[in-house]
What does this fold into?
Amino acid sequence: MERTIINTPNAPAPVGPYNQAVAVTGQLLFVSGQIALDPATGELVGTGDVVAQTEQVIANIQAILTAAGASFDNVVKTGVFLKDMNDFATVNEVYAKYFGGENAPARACVEVARLPKDVAVEIECIAAL
It folds into this structure.
C-alpha cells in the first residue's frame, strides 16, 4: 500500500499530530475532521453562527479535496459531529448544497460533548480516487 500525505495552505494547518488528509494511492482519500478555521489566519470563523461555521468547514474540505485531485463528487462517506443536535436541520441545509442529490455520500451524524476550539460542527470524509 502506497500512502500520500495531503497538506495544502488553502485549508487550516492541523492543530495536532495528524495530516489534513492521507491518500491510499489510486484508491481512497481520508480527510481529517475539519473545523471552521480560516486557513489564512488560523482564527475561528463564525463564532456562534453554525451556518458560517459549516460553510467554512466545507470550504476547508473542498480545498483538501482539490489538493488531492478530487471533488465533492468523489466523496463516498462523511462523518458529521455536532455540538448540539438542534443544529441538525440548519447544518443539513448547508451540507445539501455540496453533498445533496442522488450521488450523496453515506453519512453518520452524531452529537458530541465537545469539539476542538468549542466549534459547533466538525466534518470528516472519505473520497474514492
Observations:
- The two ends are 14 Å apart (CA to CA).
